[in-house]
Amino acid sequence: MAILETDDVSIRFGGVQALTDVSFAVEKAEIVGILGPNGAGKTTFFNCINGFYSPSAGRVHLHGEDVTDLKPEERAKRGLGRTFQQVGLVRSFTVIENLIVAQHKSVKYGLVAGLVGAPWVLEEEAELRRRALEVLDFMDLTEHKHSPVQGLPYGVLKMVEVAAVLATDPEILMLDEPLAGTGPEEGQAFCNRLKDMRRELGLTIVMIEHHVPLVLGTSDYVYVLNFGSLLAEGEPDEIRGNADVAEAYMGEGATTLD
Amino acid sequence: MTTTDQPTETHEQVEPPVAFEADEADWRPSREGVIARLVALGALVVVIVAIPHLVDDVYVNLVSRVAVYGIVALSMNVLVGYAGQVSLGHAAFFGVGAFGSAYGLAEMDVPWPAAVVLAAITGAVGAIVLGAVALRLQGLYLALVTISYGLFAERTMFNIRSLTGGGAGQEAPRPSFFESDVQYAYLCLGFLALALLFDWRLVSSRSGRSIQALRDDERVAASWGVNVTGYKLLAFIISGVLAGIAGALFASINQVAVAPDFGFSLSLTFLVMTVVGGIGNRWGVVLGGALFAVLPTLLDRAHENFHFFPFSIIEATWEPAIGALLLLLTLISFPGGLAQQLGPVLGWLQFRKFAVDHGDAGPATAGGGMGARP
User: What is the mean pLDDT of residues B7-26?
Assistant: First the structure.
């Protein structure tokens, strides 16, 4: 059974039909790429999946459960983590503080215990800090742990954001253009890291990215959106040879993506 | 002076050396440094504890007032600094607490501690009503609603004769063990200490962090599993409880609560003192509160004692103008307020280096500044 599934999702903003009957399914521990030109509706699709938008029609299923009517935080509690196109971090906090807040849903102590400062609260806080350092170490970001978020270079921020989402302990990681602002070598290193995450943490990954060769080289399965509807889907090799996709991306007359 | 100007901007231009940052956070003072700090902190505590005895008899109530304003400043800080909401009607929570306590004391004959609890509850209820609106509005519109809420409280709620005693006000006697001015000042200082402790715990636990996270970005907070609605409302409730308790303490300073004490200009003073103190910084806002608690008396005494310009023309009624001037100076040159100006000293006292802060004051300046400008 698919871990994440959408069923004919459509959304309309006033006179603009942003998505039309988009269906997709992601299996556990799969890496799925979402391609498409600017304005194709990729981020809108993410917003429908994680609950920022309510689709005008269609359903979203998480672990087989219909979550279409749940709030974003409730979907997050069911294991859905996402990043943002514009860096999604608490900008007045330091890196490690961000990773500590991100662990919000795994904190067990209650409001009053936290305010009183019960012994188990202090213990759990130390544990949160330890886990945050662990994630930073995994992402090779230890050197930035005490840096304020404001002032870090964009590429580092994108990685800190991924680290923060990892700290939420998700089962599904949805990445919205994680490679924006990074160079080609860094891009390849990041894609290798995604494969590590899948292997070591059993993560399922859905990624929107414009860097076509990297997406095709990393994903198990690829969906291509264009003008709000699915243009093509298939394994990377099928997409690579798909003339429609090449035309949408490269302009009229193109027949392959390479 | 020049180095501390415009913290956020300089920070974006000059990238901090990363290794240096990490060292900074792990830095510990030497043994001599620890001793020096302990001595300074000890002296500070001794002075604060001795203040009610040191000042002239007529100023003892002013000490209580300083403590009360400090608690209000912390209450404002939770809402404006941590949650990033605007409040131009804070005198309403304050007044609701004052009248709640006075009603309990005078009409229901409850013991003083119970009256404080009553004030906290009425403050919280007052805040929930406003909070419910705030969940649906933002920025300028929220500011307008808070103003009208404050005016409604001042003109309507506080004039219901059966609850507030109308023009004569409602009596609010002091508790039996703290009847003298000096004793009562200690009680108020004790409450301020508790409020500071509470604020520290709030920020170091999950609730305070989540409230700050949603201030910076509600979507990000929600995507991490933070219940945005719930925590926003929680910020209002905490703020209301603190303001309500402060109101109860305030009512018993003069032992009577009267409606004109809780007007719109008081709401403005509360916001200005929080911004001038340094939004997001608990020591800064308490200092700002203290400054604005003594300001009218200060102006009065200056007028009486210095017979030359500019003191000859300044009067206590100039307080709003002076407040506005300080607000402008703060926003232009020290967005972090007193906390930013005293940054090196405050940092040193908290066992860090005596170093000029280059704008990474964290929650203090960054988000708060925007939230404070309605």
Answer: 47
The DSSP line for chain A is --SEEEEEEEEEETTEEEEEEEEEEE-TT-EEEEE--TTSSHHHHHHHHHTSS--SEEEEEETTEE-TTS-HHHHHHTTEEE--SS--S-TTSBHHHHHHHHTGGG--S-HHHHHHT-HHHHHHHHHHHHHHHHHHHHTT-GGGTTSBSTTS-HHHHHHHHHHHHHHT--SEEEEESTTTT--HHHHHHHHHHHHHHHHHH--EEEEE-S-HHHHHHH-SEEEEEETTEEEEEE-HHHHHT-HHHHHHHH-TT-----
State the pTM of this model.
Answer: 0.87
| pLDDT tens per residue, range A200-228 | 888 999 999 988 888 898 999 999 998 88
Averaged pLDDT score across all residues of chain A: 89
B24's tokens: 């900074």
Shortest Cα distance from B4 to chain A (angstroms)? 16
Helix, coil or strand: residue B257: strand
CB contact under 8 Å between A81 and B223, yes or no, is yes
Q: How confident is the model at residue B167 (pLDDT cuts 50, 70, 90)?
A: confident
Work out the number of other CB atoms within 10 angstroms of the CB of residue B19. Answer: 9
CB within 8 Å: A115 and B206? no
CB-CB contact of B115 with B176 (8 Å): no
Q: Provide, as residue numbers in chain A, all residues whose Cβ is less than 8 Å from the Cβ of B221.
A: 90, 101
Q: What is the largest CA-CA distance in chain B?
A: 65
Report the residue of chain A nearest B25, measured CA to CA.
A146
- Average model confidence (pLDDT) across chain B: 84
As a whole number of angstroms, the distance between CA B369 and CA B28 comes to 31
Q: Nearest CB to A52: which of B21, B219, B224?
A: B219
> What ipTM goes with this model?
0.90
Domain ranges of chain A: 1-79+170-258, 92-169
Distance from CA of A153 to the nearest CA of B (A): 9
Helix, strand or coil for residue B29?
Answer: coil
Annotated domain spans of chain B: 30-372
- The rounded radius of gyration (Å) of the Cα atoms in chain B is 21
Look at the domain A1-79+170-258 and name its fold.
Answer: Rossmann fold (3.40.50)
Whether B10 has its CB under 8 Å from any CB of chain A: the answer is: no
User: Residue B171, SS3?
Assistant: strand
Per CATH, is B30-372 categorized as 1.10.3470?
Answer: yes
Chain A touched by B11 (CB under 8 Å)? yes
Bridge partners of A172, per DSSP, are A80, A204
Assess contact for B294 and B352: CB atoms under 8 A. Answer: no
Peptide bond into B310 cis (omega under 30): yes
Amino acid at B119: A
Single out the residue of B363, B362, B357, B370 nearest to residue B10, CA to CA: B357
Among the partner residues B16, B207, B222, nearest to A114 by beta-carbon distance:
B207
- In angstroms, what CA-CA distances link B85 with B139, B166, B245? 8, 32, 21
DSSP state of B225: T
